[in-house]
């Protein structure tokens, strides 16, 4: 290598940066006219020096020799050294220039001139930034080798990921990008936002269904990936199984980030080593431990962009709001330039989520783009696609086809729905039908249907495709075709996860050829792969909206009765499971074999896709239908005959934890007057899973061993399923008759637990402890959601606000803390007590918080601002508990002075003392 080595070059860069910074300081104090330019240059030099210091530490470390092998690193460092040297030379030359220097010294440097124009400073900074990015990126490449070789490798298989969620996945590869001549201003705006260090960390692009949001997302993701800025992407898709689950968003993004930025691996590995189930924790814990903390451990000057598409298709309104609140924290990561691009429909939960983080995002609604711009973009797209189709038909269409008037009409029909234009082009290009001229003419016949509403535009989008199924048929034939359409396409659009044609035929018990015959006419609206084992997908969710819209029940002959279709799917799932599930379905023949030792190929062979689907989603379809669970009906019969087989299948699929939730869903759906016996079985089944879940999850066949043996003798599951026990088990002595009153133990605190409280909706349990933490738990499953930390001493009490959005905690550290329950975000600290705070309570309207303390006082606080309102005094010893009356007018307090006091909660006036206790009136 020519010149200095990398280690020597970086030392020279550090020294030169320090020198230039010091000279800039001399100029700043003497040259007022150029202070803005001096400050800009000085700020950039300081940042450069910090990064160079980091590089120096790595180069001088035990693995520095390997890092020097990067030619790009050395080249960038030498360029930076040369550039800084030139700047230093020019600054010094001006500072010490001959006669002028003497004159300036006589004037106390007041006549000193800054030697660079603003454009010169811009050029210097740009050149330095370019080289800085180069050696940062080069170092990152070298660090990959270092990380892999010093045992920082992370087994990404331990983090689950949603299959097909990335923008460049196989599931997304055939979806369109924006035409190069469309959306140009919008795409430039997004690019500028990502590169602007002062911009908000989030960009929310929203628009109604079919306006092209996902196409924009794919284009943006592709562009950022090409520029090396894309860190990760997650494209939600309802009806695509894991792609609709909030719980897999952050693990999926983390896997992509580690592959893109290997320097994150040690921090992510540390999070996984500390908690193997971190991916199962609450969304806040996942986000902080898998994304925020690892990103905070690296330094990067260029942007890291995360693209999240179709957030409205995420299951769970509260989860959506939580995700938004968490992503809004992206700006707290100072060491990297993190940018998050989000698209969605402007649905209420999402609007509320962004309202809660106002001022922390940049937003744009597609309907705000001038109509003429959108119409021109659609015209451009149509012109390009129809020209391509014309070329493909090679002289089979008239020379002037389609004509500017037709394109203009189509664009006006489509406005503002890009999905209309895309569907029309697929329909016109369908080579299995009449020629393009006739098909385009068919579409234009619907021009009058687009003049009123968006729903009418969906008619014009999809009816030309569907009408061909019934056109020219007799009434009887038409009725048969429509019935066949509903029986096949209905399930396709309502499936929780797409299935292949072959699996669909098995699930629906329909001939394969019958499905193929119908789907052959629907290539314009369904993505139908040529391989029979690949899933059939919707091109766009608006097709589903069009088919199941209740308002179209009498006007759309292709309308699908959604509850009725869900009921059919539930019944078919139950039938399929009843026919195929059995004990040891994978033929393991080893009661002690671990689930981790069973390869996926074995599972897929014995549990084909349609059976896996039935096991996971039969309860979903049942819940979405108007199904009435009855004693001795299909549901009850399936459970009493195959409950253990179903649990085994869930265990093999890694979904045993879903069993508790699905059982509880069934419990909520069953009515005592029609399903009393079924309810009792389900209650027992829930206890069975909760009690033995740990062993059944790890060793599936122990469902028929220890789980069955050690269940109470009067357990309904045990009595019904005892015949399924492992063959060598004859009987077991000393087993209790009943489950007992204890349901579940929640463990995790490191010291005594001082208080618990349920959220108003009963879904969350909060606990406080002497270990200085608060823990939140899912009250239904007992799953730990998140840990809240911040108090410096024991936490004595917790309380939820009436709306459940805020949690208050009191502590021996003399403070009260308020937390956002959705995200676990710390909000504020209330200070004023002079001793331990032992109790907190919200008023019924949630506007006031009261606290009791060992300082003998009660304090009232405004919950909106945290302002102290008043102090109530009168007790002669520590106050242990406080409570508002249901109307919020009276406040009660209890104390070690053996009394209870009543107060006017509005004025703080003391009302009366209740006496009679002979020892302290503690909590």
Overall 3D form: globular
Q: Please identify the structural class as seen in this structure.
A: alpha+beta
Tell me the helix content. 40-55%
Report the sheet with the most strands, covering strand number, pairing sense and barrel closure: 5 strands, parallel
Give the distance, in angstroms, between the N- and C-terminal Cα atoms: 76 Å
Residue share in β-strands: 5-15%
The oligomeric status of these chains comes to single chain
Which spans of ≥5 residues are poorly predicted at pLDDT below 50?
Answer: 141-153
Give the number of domains: 5
Put simply, the count of helices is: 30
Mean pLDDT: 85
CATH fold call of the largest domain? Rossmann fold
> What is the C-level CATH assignment of the largest domain?
Alpha Beta
Order of strands in the sheet with most strands: 2-3-4-1-5
Strand segment count: 23
Query: Any idea what the CATH superfamily of the largest domain is called?
Result: P-loop containing nucleotide triphosphate hydrolases
CATH architecture assignment of the largest domain: 3-Layer(aba) Sandwich
Gyration radius, in Å: 34 Å
Describe the overall structure.
The protein has 923 residues and is α+β, with helices and mostly antiparallel strands. It is globular and about 95 Å long. The longest helix is centred in the N-terminal third of the chain and has 32 residues, at 118-149. The chain folds into 5 domains: 6-149, no CATH class; 156-368, Rossmann fold, CATH 3.40.50; 370-448, no CATH class; 564-724, no CATH class; 753-915, Methylamine Dehydrogenase, Chain H. It has 30 helices and 23 strands. Strand 16 (837-842) and strand 17 form a beta hairpin. Strands 2-3-4-1-5 form a 5-stranded parallel beta sheet. Strands 8-9-10-11 form a 4-stranded antiparallel beta sheet. A 4-stranded antiparallel beta sheet has the order 12-13-14-15, with no helix packed on it. This is NACHT domain-containing protein. Residues 201-346 form the NACHT domain. Keywords: Coiled coil, Repeat, WD repeat. Residues 31-94 form a coiled coil. WD repeats lie at residues 746-787, 788-829, 830-871, 872-913.
């Amino acid at each position: 290598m020519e010149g200095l080595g990398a280690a020597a070059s970086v030392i020279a860069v550090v020294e030169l940066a320090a020198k230039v910074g010091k000279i800039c300081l001399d100029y700043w104090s003497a040259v007022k006219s150029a202070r803005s330019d001096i400050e800009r240059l000085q700020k950039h030099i300081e940042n450069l020096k910090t990064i160079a210091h980091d590089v120096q530490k790595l180069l001088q470390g035990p693995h520095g020799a390997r890092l020097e092998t990067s030619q790009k690193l050395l080249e960038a460092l030498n360029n930076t050294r040369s550039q800084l040297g030139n700047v230093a030379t020019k600054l010094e030359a001006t500072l010490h220039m001959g006669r002028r220097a003497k004159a300036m010294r006589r004037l106390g440097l007041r006549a000193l001139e800054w030697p660079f124009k603003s454009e010169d400073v811009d050029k210097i900074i740009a050149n330095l930034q370019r080289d800085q990015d180069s050696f940062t990126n080069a170092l990152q490449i070298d660090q990959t080798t270092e990380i892999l070789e010093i045992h920082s490798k992370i087994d990404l298989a331990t983090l689950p990921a949603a299959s097909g969620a990335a923008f460049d996945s196989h599931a997304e590869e055939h979806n369109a990008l924006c035409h190069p001549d469309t959306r140009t201003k919008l795409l430039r705006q997004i690019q500028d936002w990502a590169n602007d260090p002062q911009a908000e960390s989030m960009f929310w692009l929203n628009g109604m269904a079919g306006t092209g949001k996902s196409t924009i997302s794919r284009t943006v993701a592709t562009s950022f990936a090409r520029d090396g800025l894309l860190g990760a992407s997650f494209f939600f898709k309802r009806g695509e199984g894991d792609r609709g689950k909030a719980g897999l968003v952050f693990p999926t993004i983390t896997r992509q980030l580690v592959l893109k930025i290997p320097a994150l691996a040690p921090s992510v590995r540390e999070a996984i080593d500390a908690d193997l189930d971190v991916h199962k924790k609450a969304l806040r814990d996942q986000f902080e431990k898998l994304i925020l903390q690892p990103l905070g451990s690296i330094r990067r000057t260029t942007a890291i962009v995360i693209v999240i598409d179709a957030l409205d298709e995420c299951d769970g309104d509260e989860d959506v709001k939580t995700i938004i609140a968490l992503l809004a924290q992206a700006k707290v990561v100072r060491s990297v330039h993190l940018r998050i691009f989000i698209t969605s429909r402007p649905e209420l939960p999402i609007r509320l989520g962004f309202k809660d983080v106002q001022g922390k995002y940049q937003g744009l609604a597609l309907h705000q783009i001038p109509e003429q711009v959108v119409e021109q973009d659609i015209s451009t797209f149509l012109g390009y696609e129809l020209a391509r189709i014309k070329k493909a038909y090679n002289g089979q269409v008239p020379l002037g086809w389609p004509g500017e008037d037709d394109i203009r009409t189509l664009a006006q029909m489509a406005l503002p729905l890009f999905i209309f234009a895309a569907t029309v082009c697929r329909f016109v290009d369908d080579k299995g039908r009449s020629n393009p001229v006739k098909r385009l003419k068919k579409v234009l016949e619907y021009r009058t249907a687009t003049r009123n509403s968006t729903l009418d535009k969906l008619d014009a989008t999809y009816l030309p495709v569907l009408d061909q199924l019934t056109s020219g048929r007799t009434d009887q034939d038409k009725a048969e075709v429509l019935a066949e359409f509903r029986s096949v396409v209905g399930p396709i659009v309502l499936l929780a996860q797409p299935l292949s044609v072959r699996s669909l035929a098995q699930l629906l018990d329909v001939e394969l050829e019958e499905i193929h015959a119908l789907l052959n006419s629907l290539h314009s609206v369904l993505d139908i792969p040529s391989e029979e084992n690949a899933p059939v997908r919707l091109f766009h969710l608006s097709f589903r909206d069009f088919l199941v819209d209740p308002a179209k029940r009498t006007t759309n002959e292709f309308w699908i009765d959604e509850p009725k279709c869900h009921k059919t799917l539930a019944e078919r799932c139950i039938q399929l499971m009843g026919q195929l599930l059995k004990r040891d379905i994978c033929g393991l023949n080893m009661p002690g074999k671990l689930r981790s030792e069973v390869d996926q190929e074995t599972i897929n062979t014995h549990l084909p896709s349609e059976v896996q689907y039935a096991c996971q989603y039969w309860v979903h379809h049942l819940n979405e239908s108007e199904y009435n669970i009855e004693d001795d009906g299909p549901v009850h019969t399936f459970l009493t005959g195959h409950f253990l087989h179903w649990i085994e299948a869930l265990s093999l699929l890694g979904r045993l934890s879903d069993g508790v939730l699905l059982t509880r869903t069934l419990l909520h759906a069953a009515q005592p007057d029609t399903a009393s016996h079924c309810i009792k079985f389900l209650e027992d089944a829930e206890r069975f899973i909760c009690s033995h879940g740990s062993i059944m999850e790890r060793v599936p066949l122990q469902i028929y061993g220890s789980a069955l043996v050690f269940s109470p003798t009067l357990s309904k599951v045990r009595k019904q399923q005892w015949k399924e026990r492992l063959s060598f088990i004859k009987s077991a002595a000393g087993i209790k008759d009943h489950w007992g009153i204890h349901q579940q133990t929640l463990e995790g605190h490191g010291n005594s637990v001082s208080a618990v409280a349920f959220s108003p909706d009963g879904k969350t349990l909060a606990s406080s402890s002497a270990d200085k933490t608060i823990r939140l738990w899912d009250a239904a499953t007992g799953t730990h959601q998140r840990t809240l930390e911040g108090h410096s001493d024991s936490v004595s009490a917790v309380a939820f606000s009436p709306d459940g959005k805020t949690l208050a905690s009191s502590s021996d550290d003399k403070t009260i803390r308020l937390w956002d329950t959705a995200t676990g975000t710390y909000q504020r600290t209330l200070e004023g007590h002079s001793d331990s705070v032992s109790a907190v309570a919200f008023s019924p309207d949630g506007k006031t918080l009261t606290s009791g303390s060992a300082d003998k006082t009660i304090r009232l606080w405004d919950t909106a601002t945290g302002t102290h309102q008043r102090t109530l005094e009168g007790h002669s010893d520590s106050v242990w508990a406080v409570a508002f009356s249901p109307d919020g007018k009276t406040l009660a307090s209890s104390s070690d002075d053996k009394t209870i006091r009543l107060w006017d909660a509005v004025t703080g006036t003391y009302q009366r003392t209740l006496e009679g206790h002979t020892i302290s009136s503690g909590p």
